[in-house]
Amino acid sequence: MAHGSRAGLVAAAAVLLLALAGAPLIPGALDSYLLFFLFLVFVHTVLAQSWNLVAGYTGQISLAQHAFFGIGGYTTAIVATTVLEGGDFYFNPLAMLAAGLVAALFAVAIGVPLLSRLAGDYFALGTLGFGEIVRVVLVKGGALTGGSFGISMPPDAFDTLAPHYWVGLALAVAATAAVYGVARSRPGLALMAIREDPLAAAASGVNVLRFKVLAFALGAFLAGLAGSLYAFYVFSVSPAGFLNLNWTLYPILMCVMGGSGTVLGPVIGAFLMTAVFSAANVWLPSAHPVLSGAMIIVVMIFMPNGILRMRAARTGRPVRWRWAAKQAARDAD
Amino acid sequence: MLEILSPRLLADLFVNGLLFGAMYGVAAIGLSLIFGTMRIIFLAQGAMIVLAGYAAYWAFQLLGVDPYLTMVALIPLSLAVGAAIYQLLFRRAAALEDKNTSLLIAVGLMFMLESLMSLAWTPDPRSITTGYTATGFEVAGVRLSVTRTAGFAIAILATLGVTLFLRKTLVGKAVRAVSENMDAAALVGIAPHRVNMIAFAVGIALAGVAGCTLASTYAIDPYFGFLFSLKALIALALGGLGNVGGALAGGLALGVIESGASFFLPGWADAVAYLVFLLVLMFRPEGLFVRSVKKA
């Protein structure tokens, strides 16, 4: 990319961020659906980036992001209702940090045994199993997790969307910056080497397990933060609301649609998919999931490499059956 | 709790687990065929099963057709639906190296089916109540319901049918060849798209079989399918991926594990099932019922 256009891009991004940050200050803006929509975009962006790190950059398909999202949400609620009871719990940085850290701890605990033994589909299935176990544990967790009803936090201290919006924006920017930073760092290089060929990466001296677990834990940390952000918005966490597989499937969809393994792809995907879902929710509430399903199928069939087709050369290559057969026929002659 | 533990109770738990596990087994065989040839985890299998269940339900409610009779019509129909799904949705994705694409198409299909069924037929659970639903008989002191036993028998027949198809027919051999090594199969002149389509059609036909038997025994609702897909995946992992007999055995084992766990650890049955699943994935990824230690 030419130097001039890069500076232009940075300037455009800065202007866009300033506009986004200032949006709640416009009179009447806080009552509009648009700000809520943007808040959802931020939550989705953080989650999508969390999956992007694990799957897009490291090549390990995780189907447990909803579990880390849920762990983050529950940690926030538990900290808010016990440790910080009666105190200043609302958007308490410690509660949010705890949400990310607890999720990351779980990721290390489950990631070391899973990642040392499983790869590919088997790892994906294993993470799915982990998510289901977390769900059952939360439902059966007794007083600590509130069973299938969940935990309600004390009533909202702020009665406006603005703080949620700003924290969401900050987290979305931070998550994207984190992915940008990782992608350009030495560990990031190791992650991509593992994605391309784990064996070759190991042969080049990369500690494959350590970096896989690192990416998994970092992804879980971001998912936990997203869960915390969302918990502060809905003010009650429940297995049905937080351990919902949609919290894994939507980020995957957003990443793949925007282009997984790119820095900005998940942001674009989060924006577009949230727009589609919200539009469907407003105009066709009952048919919303039908439309979402159809949308997933259409996107996957016609744009399997995402909008930023940076990985097209690697993943989009069709297996050349016909060519192989013809070649074999020619060789046989 | 121990004083109520009689051999009879244990036998009941075991047999009922076995009978329900047969349903997982049939679903797992369908998944296994699709996974074997295309390396696609077809998560919508459960939704297809529920759809077939609804077909049997409505055929019974509106036309008074016996669910087992419906199966005769449903099998060719679901073969055709399976072939159509492959051609319309998976043909392009199956040729991609990136398996995310096909996984997500399956997820999209599942969403669509679930919400369409819920819109059309409400989310209320339904079950078929025929004249013989409540009847049963006793074998060696264990009471067996007619429909559950029929479901078990059908599962065994379906497994035998698929095994014979894979072993004895040329098409079945082609399916096995593609599962072993797709490139080599293409080199000897097997058209992968045709084989994929056939595997998909047979997989969905098995969903049809499972749906009919399931709806005539247990209650179904539009969202029941996803959980069923997960259970079928567990059964598949227990039995070893790409192994028809193993898939059935895995389903039976899962049924027994769940039935035992739901009695001894009420509410934890799902967690126990997934824990077993994780342990098997980690320590015996080739499955519990495979003798040769082939690295999966």
Structure explained in plain terms:
The complex is a heterodimer of chains A (333) and B (296). By secondary structure, chain A is mainly alpha-helical. In chain A, 73% of the residues lie in helices and 1% in strands. Chain A is built from 15 helices and 2 strands. In chain A, strands 1-2 form a two-stranded antiparallel ribbon. In chain A, helix 2 (33-57) runs parallel beside helix 6 and helix 2 (33-57) packs across helix 12 (265-283). In chain B, helix 1 (7-38) crosses helix 10, helix 2 (45-63) packs parallel to helix 4 (100-121) and helix 5 (146-168) packs antiparallel against helix 8. A two-stranded antiparallel sheet of chain B has the order 1-2. Chain B starts with 6 loop residues before the first helix and ends in a 13-residue tail after the last helix. In chain B, 73% of the residues lie in helices and 3% in strands. By secondary structure, chain B is mainly α. Chain B has one domain (2-283): Orthogonal Bundle (ABC transporter involved in vitamin B12 uptake, BtuC), CATH 1.10.3470. The chains are: A mainly alpha (333), B mainly alpha (296). Chains A and B meet through helix 4, helix 5, helix 11, helix 13 and helix 15 of A and helix 3, helix 4, helix 7, helix 9 and helix 11 of B.
